[in-house]
Structure formats: C-alpha cells, structure tokens
Amino acid sequence: MKPFVSFENVTKTYKTGEMEISALKDVNFEIEKGEFCVIVGASGAGKTTILNILGGMDHLTDGKVFLDGEEISAYDKKQLTSYRRYDIGFVFQFYNLVQNLTAVENVELASQICKEPLDAVTVLEEVGLKERLSNFPAQLSGGEQQRVAIARALAKNPKLLLCDEPTGALDYNTGKSVLKLLQDTCRVKGKTVVVITHNQAITAMADRVITVKSGTIVKMEKNQHIVDIADIEW
Amino acid sequence: MKSTIWKSTFREIRQSLGRFMAILAIVALGVGFFAGLKITQTAMVRTTEDYFQETDFFDYHLLSNVGFSKESVETFARQESVKAVEGDVSFDILCSDGSGEMVIEAHSIPEKLNRVVLVEGRMPEKDTECVVDSNLYGSSAIGKKIKLSQQNEESDLEHFTYTEYEITGLVQSPLYIQFERGTTSLGTGKISGFLYLLPTGFQADYYTDIYVRFHEDFPLYSDTYTEYIDAKTDVWEALAQTVAEERYDTVLADARRQLADGKEELAEKKQEAEGQLADAKEKLDEAAAEISDGERQISEARERLEKAPREIEEKEAQLAEAEAALAEQELQLNQAEIAVGLGYAVGMGELSKALNSAGNILGGSTEQSADNVSGNEMDLGSFGGELPEGMDGNASMEQIAGAKQQIADGRAQIADAKQQLAAGKAAIADAKRQLEAGKKELEEKEKELEEGKQEYETGKQEYEEAYAEFQEEVARAEEKIRDGEEAIEQLEKPESYVLGRNTNVGYVCFESDSGIVDGIANVFPIFFFLVAALVCMTTMNRMVEEQRGQIGVLKALGYSQRSIMAKYIFYSGTAAALGCVLGFFGGILLFPRVIWYAYGMMYRVTSLAFVFDAKLALISLSGALLCSVGTTYVSCRYELSEVAAELMRPRAPKAGKRVFLEYLPFFWKRLKFLQKVSLRNIFRYKKRFFMMVVGISGCSALLVTGFGVRDSVTNVAAQQYTEIQLYDISMTCQKPVEKELERELERRMPEEIAAYCVVAEETMDLEVDGKIKSINLVAAESGEALEPFVDLHTTKKEHVPYPGLGEAVISHKIAEEYGVKVGDSILLRDENRREMTVKVSGIFQNFVYHYVYITTETFEEQMGEAPERKSVYINAAEGKDAHLLGTELRNIKNAASVNVNEDFLERFSSMMRSMDLIVVVVIISAAGLAFIVLYNLTNINITERIREIATIKVLGFYENETASYVFRENLTLTFLGALLGLGLGRLLHMFVMRQIKIDVITFDSRVLPVSYLYSALLAMAFAFLVNRMMKKKIDCINMTESLKSVD
C-alpha cells in the first residue's frame, strides 16, 4: 500500500533573473496516515518550500507528490485550490485570523466552503474557547488566537493538518499547550498532522521526524520513544 | 533631506507608481475642472473682446428719423477722444433666393467700424456683388444670386441700385455675434440674415446709421467701460440731436426747393406742351380742310366725267343725224337739179315752188345740222345755211339760174358741211380720248386723297394720344407735388438716438450667457477638490502606516521628525504639483474649447483665445498643495509623534467591531456569511467609506447632471413640435388670407391636407412692471378651431381651456419669469404702440419662443379692428409627406413663407446635438473620478489586506471567491454612492439648469428615469471595470505572503 503522503524526487528551483536558486534537491519522504510528523531544519533549509508544495501553495520543478493516492504535483491551479479547500488544514505562525471576524466567524470562514465541515462552535469548544466564541481576534491572546486558527483548520475536516511554526509567535507555555492540542488532535481524532519547526525539541513528541538541511532530506526516522508534550522542555 | 532619503523617496515613487499616479490624477482632475471651468468665461469674454477690438466694434450707434448727411460724419469725428466715425447705409428688404422669401438687412460694407470678417469667398468688387451672412448660407451659395423680391414696396426698392446681387462670399459681422438677427416691419417680421453691399450698391445719398468708436480699451462688460460711456451720453445725445435738426432743416429746405422747382418746371413744361399741341391741332385742321376741298373737286370732276360720255353719245347721234340729213339734202339737191333740168316746161311757179321747197329743205336741214354741231363746245363752222334772199319765184329763168346757182351753192355748202362734219367727228374722238385721260387722272386723284385721309387719321390719333398723355403726366406731376407737399407737412420732428453697445442683442446676450459656465464653475471644482483631498489623505495615511517600521528605524537612526516628514510631503507634494500643472493646462485648453464649441450653436465669433491666468494658476496650485501636503501633514503627524520603539513594533491590527446592523437581527440574520464580512469591512474604515461614497456619488451625480442636461435640452424641440404645436406646416401670407387661398387649400382636402386653420400672428411687446419682452401673439377664431393644431396644456399635462373674450393664455416661461399668475392682467403693445390689456386665464407649457393666445374677437375689441389673418396652420393628410406638401404650397401666389415644423425640429435637434459633446465631457470626467477613487481605494484595500487575501487563498477560496470577497465591498459602496449620487445629481442638475438660460428656448428641467438608470449603471460599470483591473493584482498575490509576519 502506498503511503499517505509521499515525495518522490522532488526538486524546486526559484528563478530570480539570471540566478537559479535551488530550494529543494531530490527530496524523498513519506508520511503514514494518522502520524504526527515534524519537519525540522534551520532557517533557509527548505522546510517552508516543502510546506508550500505539500500545502498546494506552490508548484514543484521536478518530481512527484502524492496525498492519499492522488498526484498533487500534476494538479493545475484550480485543482490545487480545491485541494487546499477540501484536503488541507493550515495553521500559520502568525495565526492569520481575519481581524474583522469573531472567533466563531473565523472558523465559519473556512467551514462554510467545505463539503462536510464540522460545526464551528463545537470545534471551538473542543479547542477550549467556549467562552470566547464571539470575541474578535484583537480581544484574544496569542494562544487563543492560535487555537482559533487550529479550530479553523480542523473545522474543514481536512485530510492533512499543516502547521507552520505554530508556536513561533507564542510564549513557552502557550506554545506547549498549542502543541498539546495538535498532538491530541492527532491522537484522538486520528488526523495526520505535519508540523514544521526549527525547534529540535519538538521532535521528541513526533511519530516521524524529517530533518531538512540545504534543500535535502538528511534524515527521516520513525520516533521510537514518543514523549508527551508535557514532558518536553526547551 | 539627506541623499539617502532622496534616493529612498524616488525609489518609493517608482515602486508605488500606482499610488503616486492616483494622487497625481485626482489632483489633475480637480485642478483641470476648476481651472478649465473658471477660465472659460474669461476666455470667452476675452475672445469676444479681441474680436470686437479687431473688427472695431462701435461704442455708439447713432440713429435719427431723418438720417444723417455725409458731412455730419466730420462733425462727429471732431469730438473729443473719438477714434473713428463711420456712416452706414442699411435697409431691410424682402429677398428671395429661389427657395422662399425672407427679410434681409442690407448694409453698406464698413471700412472703419464693425468690419466684417470674411469666412469664405471674397469681398465684393463691383456694386452688383454682395457678401452674405455665413449663418444663413453655406459655401454652396457663393456664385448664386440673391434677388430683391417683387413684393417689396417701391419706396423700399428705390434704396437699391439693382434688384439682384451676386453672392461672392460669406461673412460674419460683429453686429451679430448671436444667432438672433432682429425684427423688422417687413414680411414675417423676422430678419433672417444680413448682407453687405458696396456703398454704390445703394441709391441713398445719406447715412441711415452712424457708428462711433472712442479711444478706449476698457475690458469688455467692465464697470469702467459703462461709466466711461455713461459720462459721454449727455453730450452726445445733445450733439446727435443738433445734427439731426440740421439735417432736418436741410432736408426740409431741399424738399421745399425741390417742390418749388418742380412746380415751376411743371408750369413750363405744361405751357410748352400746350403750345406744341396747339400747333399740331392747327396743322391737323388745315389738313382736314384740304381734304374736304379735294373731295369736292373730285366729286365735281367725277360728275363731269360721268356726264361727258352721254353728251358725246348725244353729239354722235346728232352728228349721225346731221350726216343722214346731209345725205338727204344731197339727194334732194340732186333731185332738184334734175327737176330744174326737166322743169323748164313746167311752170315756173312750180319750178320755183319746187326750188323753194328744195331750198327750204336744204336750208332747214343745214341749219339744223349746223346747230347741232355748234351745240358741242367744239368750234364747228356754220353752213351759212340759208338760201340767199335774192331768190325770187317770179323770175323763173332767173330763178332757174338762180336755182342752179343755189344748187351749186348748196353743193358747196354741203361740201362745207361735210368738212365740218368730219371736223366734228374728229372733235368727238378727241373728246373721248380726253375723257379717258380725265378718268385716269380722277382715279389717281382719288387714291391720293385716300392716302391723305389716312395720314390725317394717324395724325389725329397721334394728337389724341399725345394729348391724353399730356393730361396724365400733368396729373401725375401734380400728384407728386401734392405728395411732396404732404410729405413736407408730415415730416416728423427730428429725433435722434444715441445707442450704446447694450442695445446690441449679441453683446448683451453674450454677457449673460457667458456667465452660465462661471456659475457651474463654482460648484463642480469644490467637489473635485474634496475628493482629491480625501484620496490624498487615505493614500498617505496608508503609506505612512505601511512604513511605520521604516519611520521607526529612521527615527532610531536619529533623523529628525521634520526630515522624515519631508519625505512624505515631498512624495504627495510632487504628485500634486505635477498633477496640478497637468490638470491646469489640460483644463484651460480643453474645457473652454469644448464649451466654446457648444456655444457655437448660438454665437459665431472666432476660434477661442488661449488665456493664461496666473492668479488662477496660483489658486489651483495652492488648492492642490493644500489637498495633498496638508492632508499628508495631518496624517503623518500622528504616526511621527510616536516614539521609535513603538513604531518599530507592528501596530496592532485595527480591531474588528460589530456594526450597528448586527443589532438588527432580522436583517443581519438573513445575510450570507460573506455579506456580513463585507459589511463589517465597509464600516471598518470610515474614511474610506466616506471617500468612496463621496467619489462615487459625485461620479453618478455628474452623470445624472450630464444626462439630465441632455434630457432637458434635447426633448424641448421634440415636445414643442410633437406635443404642443401639432401642425405640420405653417404658412405665412403676404396679404390677409382670402377666399381664393382657402379654396385652394380646400381643393387639396382630404387627400393632401387633413385640416387647416387661419390665424393672425403678430409680434408684440409684453410689458410687466416696466420690463419688456417680445412675444408672439396668436389670435384664432376659437379654441375649437385651433384644437387640432395647437395643444395647450399645463406642465402637468392638464388641458388649458382656450381664453374667452378679453382673456389670454400665456406660455409658462413668461409666467415664471415675470411672476404672472392666472387672473393677472397683462399689457401687450404692437409696433405702432397700440396697446391691449388682457386677463390671463391660463398658463400653458411651451418651449420654443414665447406665445400668447387670444381670440380674434378679443383683438378686435381691444384694438378696434380685426387682426390681419395672414398665417395658416396646416395638418398634412395621413401618409402625405409634409415637405412635399410644403413645396407645393410655396407655389401659391399669396404665400410668403411656408415652414415645415419637421424642419424646425431637425434644426433644433442638430443644434442641441452639440450638447452631446458636453455630456461626453461630463461622462469622461465622471469616469475619471470614479476610476481614480475606486482604483485608489481598491489599491489601498488590497495592499493593506495582502495577508488576509493570501490566507483566504490558502484556505482554498477559488479565484472568483477571493475576488468577490474583496470587491463585494467595492460594489456595495459603489451602489450606495451611486444611489446617493442620483439624488445629488438631481439637485446639481437643477442648479445647472438654473444657470443655463437662453431667452427663446425654455428648457424642460427634468431627468428621465432612464437617465438615472444609465447613470447608476455607468457608475457600476466603472466599478466593475476597476474591479476587473484589480483582480489581476489579487491573482498575483502570492500565498506565501500569508506566512510572513506582520510588518
């Protein structure tokens, strides 16, 4: 059986004028369904490029990408949009909530375009924001905002939850609780979660760790000693 | 500013060219509108001023009822500060050019003042040539002839040297800068145009008008000019009166002298003629006597000749008798001789008896024949017939001897007689010949006499004719003298008029009409400047917000607040300054020209002068800078006052807020989710909301005004000729309509003419509170008669009943302008200053010219006589071409002019079509406004929400969904703005219409529903267009933007 997510010889080069910058070179990896995967690497290593390609936000130059048996790399622009719409849930480093919408509306913004969305209020209750449904982002703390963002991603009921430095803008404890939420989502709901981070410490809680360096995968391993997020410190 | 900041500023401009251009464009638009409209009146007045200066437009126009002598020009020229004086000859005359008759005002070509401007062709070189009104004729008229109509009075025709003039060119005259040509007492009462002749084209030996120009160059319509002229008026009025009186005296003296001369001449001529006639008469009489003499002689001769043949016959018979007698005598003589020879024996007595008897016989017969012959006039000799006394019967021997002797004598006598007989015969033949000659002579004489008689008859006839002529001439001359006397008696007291420029229709109308634009210029630009200020403010606000971090860094690096501020002020300042220059020159070049072009339908002057007004430029620049730099300063000040550290931290995003609509659950709950989002966004940024609404409402208000002006203007003619004046053709006659004409019209019914109605039309002055207005008075028999031709209704389309006796209905513009209400009385005055007062019984809607309708009865009652019914309104039969009918009607003898209303409709429509140009300008301006506002706003919206849009894209919104997520607010605001604009537009339209006033045309101030629709649709279309343009920008937003931090 084919793995849930697989990158096959993926290469990405950016052209800026005469210059050709190679962001990814011959990247190969796969992620199983229901796994909590952490892609880790230093700044500029190419992890964001992987995220962009996997998230359907960017095309690759060469190679193939599969999700759930579908070849994403062959999609055109419109198909990619549908892919993002139905299959991917995205959690941003800076939450990217619409300032003008309340928490529940921000979730609805995503859920209303999906085929089988989850109820916005329920999802928000699940992420612990029952009391803050009608608050605007500006009235929420960073952690709360990220929870709203996660709720927004989850409400779409995606096949894959992609998180870009979800703790990057958060303080230590809040970051931890957000990671806990993500881990729970994976464990309880069986969602495949991919977290991109530069924080090596987080790898401890992952099922699978992919290490990126200078546009190539240097290491891909299954974590044999999964540690609960509460026990990780950095 | 340090060089790095300069660099950064220029780079900034290059990188955000769209934003820079938005400021530039809105400032250009605002300044263009302001400067363009503001300069228009100045430019128009300046152009006309130059035109008047170039053509030397008069300052004074002198008129007198006795004209001016050629010498008086010098008198006037000697006056103080006079630059030039010129006499002009001008007469109104009926002309025909083949298509119909019209009144033309003929002038002598001026050389000094009011010089004409040649538009096409050449000026006249001969006195048989002329140049004509370029408004009346096109270039095709050159080379054709213009004829003075035979309908003219002799006294009018005699002013002209010829009866036709060849057109050599088209001209414009400063005396007629407007399309109105004035009125006249001739023909239809309306002057159609003018023509100019060489002075020798006129017969007049005096000037009808004198024009004066002073050494002055005060601005046109300035108070200083008015004061200058006013100060001179008294002196000039007195002078003109003096000159007129002198002229009057000369004219009078001349007339009297001429009259006296004439009388004398008449007397002389009469005498001379009478003498000649008497001579002729005498000769004729002599001739008559000779003729009768001849006649008598001839008849005598004829009588004689008639008698002569009979006499000759008688004579011949006598001669024949005499011959016969002679022959018998001879025979007897022979017998007697025999007897004498035998009778010796026989008694002597017997013998002697026989002898005696023989002698007796002989004697008798000879005597007889001799008598006979001598009876003729001829000289016949005598027989000497009697026998000698000596014969005696006693002495027979002797007797016998005697007898023998006697016989011998007898024989001798017979021979003699025969000789005489022959002579007689010869005489008769002669007489016959003479008779023949006499007959011939008589015939000749008769012929001669006949000829003489004929000659006499002709002579007599000639004489009679000459006599009749003489009498006629005398009568005519006497009448002339009587006329002359009468004229002298009636010669009006001299009156003179000193008319200023303010009596020239073109001059006066131009002042008020050129002011129209200025009124508009005060409203529109304010609006554009407001939008410009708003655009600058939002743009710069956004820019400063975007560059918070950068400002913070600069501040942290130690740059002063002023030098940082300078960057933004420079940015907006250069945009505004460039826009101002662009807009200013674009505006002052474009707007006056477009408006001038539109004015071209009423004013024919020259191409527009370019006017640069430094003061206006300064005002524009200050306005532009105030809008840009001012707003930049205000929006930057707040940001710059923050400390560096605070600036470097990302600014907390503007908090979301509930909008008041959310408290209306019944409304809010019905909305779709994304609609709610849009509504929140709309209310989130008040400044932008305001700018958008102001901009778009301005745009649609402009559109409504533009379309509305067209609605109000273009439909005027259509309504006038399809809803009010329903008749197809109006015919004006030379003489009041007579039976013959009516029969002619009836003959054409119903195949060609559906109906006709004869009315009286007259131009009259309406006087209300001392103000005078020229109106058209129509007097019809009754309302019913007029009904199929004129539909009188109020502006609310209610029927206006036809006025009764002593009443009148008036058109609504008169009523509005002079505050006349139903029930008021109005005073009407005709050319002869006869007055009538009528009560207004109704006010009807009317658009072209001013009308007052009454009944003929009212006219008669007021004026004491029936009006001259010279006009006929005609409705063409169904399917009959009005133009065709019109052409046929022109052939009717009495027809002076035949006008087809369709032509008027077309003429007005084409005139009004130039309004379309203004509408186009308005639409373009509105589009420009809408584009700038929408573009700017959308641009700000997008750059500000790049992260949000990118996020939305990442969330999987399709392209169209993303676009509508952003643009729904634009469209909503456009819709709101447009809606508001429709209302504003109505107000603006009303304002503009109040500014536009043309005397003869009443505009129907209205905006058609479809125009509102068009305006709204156009505004929305502009929004869609901008959205389409901006959609590309949204499509280009990279989703990776969503991954970036807020900065």
Give an overview of the whole structure:
The complex is a heterodimer of chains A (234) and B (1047). Chain A is of the alpha/beta class and 234 residues long. Chain A is 29% helix and 29% strand. Chain A has helices spanning 47-54, 77-87, 103-111, 120-126, 142-155, 172-189; strands at residues 5-16, 19-31, 36-41, 62-67, 70-71, 88-91, 160-164, 192-197, 208-213, 216-222. A 6-stranded mixed sheet of chain A has the order 6-7-8-3-9-10, sandwiched between helices. In chain A, helix 5 runs parallel beside helix 6 (172-189). The mean pLDDT of chain A is 88. Chain B is elongated and about 225 Å long. With 1047 residues, chain B is of the alpha+beta class. In chain B, helix 2 (17-55) packs antiparallel against helix 9 and helix 2 (17-55) runs antiparallel to helix 22. Chain B starts with a helix and ends in a 12-residue tail after the last helix. The chains are: A alpha/beta (234), B alpha+beta (1047). The interface between A and B is medium-sized, with 37 and 32 residues.
Give the helix proportion of chain B (percent range): 55-70%
Could you spell the SSE succession of chain A in H and E letters?
EEEHEEHEHHHEHEEE
State the largest interface: A-B, 37 and 32 residues
How big is the Rg of chain B?
Answer: 59 Å
Shape of chain B: elongated
CATH superfamily of chain A: P-loop containing nucleotide triphosphate hydrolases
- Work out the oligomeric state of the chains in this entry: heterodimer
Intertermini distance of chain A? 37 Å
Estimated share of beta-strand residues of chain A: 25-35%
**DSSP helical segment count of chain B:** 25
